[in-house]
Structure formats: structure tokens, C-alpha cells
Design brief:
alpha/beta, 208 residues
Length: 208
């Protein structure tokens, strides 16, 4: 199961899905692509949507990018028996305490047409930056094997914050592919190699 980032659609995974060699499902999260525009955009609502859409699949591997990774991590904490292995690609790590992460450069709507509800942007940017001690409690108990991928210094997300989340988890490892936030698009071959190895029965998570 593949979950895209903010302002993206399921189509972002087409190339990666073709390299998996196994069935793959990618969803347009609410407010994106072909999914409904809604009055509520929250991580909890997106988790509920994904669980409803996957209720008949049985256990699955879960890959999430950015906002989709936040959704994936919360889903895995709430329904750990559903997720076999978890891959989190350049995902924002919320503060455990204190103020929310700053949003110094909120974007403006682009002039050209776009394939998502603009209301999802400010709502989810706030959601993934909010102080969230319950998220930290959840991942600290999450036994699902987890691979975190960081885009390194070229990403706007701090690798150090990713490392702190990895250290809090029972069975997590971190791999850096230093190409920025959109790893699966900027380095598709390396992304596929690392993720497919991790998801395979004999695969190793990789090294930091």
C-alpha cells in the first residue's frame, strides 16, 4: 500500500510500483486526485479512510511519503496487526513537547489548475507540525519493522529529527539518500533498490 505526500496523487508511485514485482495499491488521499473534497482534513480522518479502503486486503506492507508517511505511521500504531513492514520516506517528525514546528513559508495557491483541494494544504501543514506526544508514545511501542528514509541536507526536513524518531522505536533503521524531499522521484532506482530489499523476506533494512 502506497500513500503519497501533500498535493500529490497516487500516480506519483507508478514507476516504483512497476519495480516491485508484486501487487501494489496506491490511494488518492482525501482531497487529492480522484478522492472526495471534504470538510475535514486531519491525519486521523486519512487514517480512517485508508483502513476502510484496505479492510479486505489482510496484512500489507505500507509505504508513505511525507504527509502520507505521517498517516502511515499513525495507522501502523493504531492497527499494528494490519501492517507487516513500514517504510517512511522523508516524513515530518512532530515535536514531542513545546511549540509546534514553525511554518515560515506557507505556500500560496498556484495560478495553474491543480489536482487537489487547496484547503487540504494549510490544514495538513498544521497537522504534521503540531506538537504530538501521543505520536511519540505510539512509535515507541510499535514493533513493526520500520525503514526511515531521509533526503539528507537537501531536504527541508531535518535528518536529525528523523534520527530521533528512529532511536525511539523498537525495530527501526534509517537510510539517507541525499537527493532532497522527493526521493522516490529524484533517485527512483536507488529508492526502489533499498525499499524492495527491505520489504523482501530476505532483505535487510540497510545501514544509516
Amino acid at each position: 500500500m502506497l500513500l503519497h505526500g501533500l498535493g500529490d496523487t497516487a500516480a506519483t508511485w507508478d514507476r516504483f510500483a512497476s519495480s516491485l514485482g508484486r501487487p501494489a495499491h496506491a490511494l488518492d488521499l482525501r482531497g487529492h486526485g480522484g478522492s472526495p473534497r471534504c470538510a475535514e482534513y486531519t491525519v486521523d480522518a486519512m487514517v480512517a479512510d485508508v483502513l476502510a479502503a484496505t479492510s479486505e486486503l489482510g496484512p500489507f506492507d505500507l509505504v508513505g511519503h511525507s504527509m502520507g508517511g505521517q498517516v502511515a505511521s499513525v495507522l501502523a500504531c493504531r492497527a499494528p496487526g494490519v501492517v507487516r513492514r513500514l517504510v517512511l520516506e522523508d516524513v515530518p517528525v512532530p515535536p514531542r513537547s513545546g511549540p509546534a514546528l514553525p511554518d515560515d513559508a506557507p505556500p500560496s495557491p498556484p495560478d495553474e489548475p491543480f489536482d487537489f483541494d487547496w484547503a487540504v494544504v494549510p490544514a495538513m501543514r498544521r497537522a504534521v507540525r503540531a506538537t504530538n506526544p501521543s505520536w511519540w508514545r505510539g512509535i515507541s511501542r510499535l514493533a513493526v519493522p520500520t525503514l526511515w528514509l531521509s533526503g539528507g541536507p537537501a531536504s527541508h526536513l531535518s535528518p536529525a529529527r528523523v534520527a530521533s524518531a528512529v532511536a525511539a522505536m523498537p525495530d527501526a533503521t534509517m537510510r539517507t539518500i541525499p537527493v532532497g524531499h522527493l526521493i522516490h522521484e529524484a533517485a527512483p532506482a536507488e529508492f526502489a533498490r533499498v525499499v524492495v530489499a527491505f520489504l523482501s523476506a530476505d532483505g535487510e533494512p540497510g545501514t544509516p
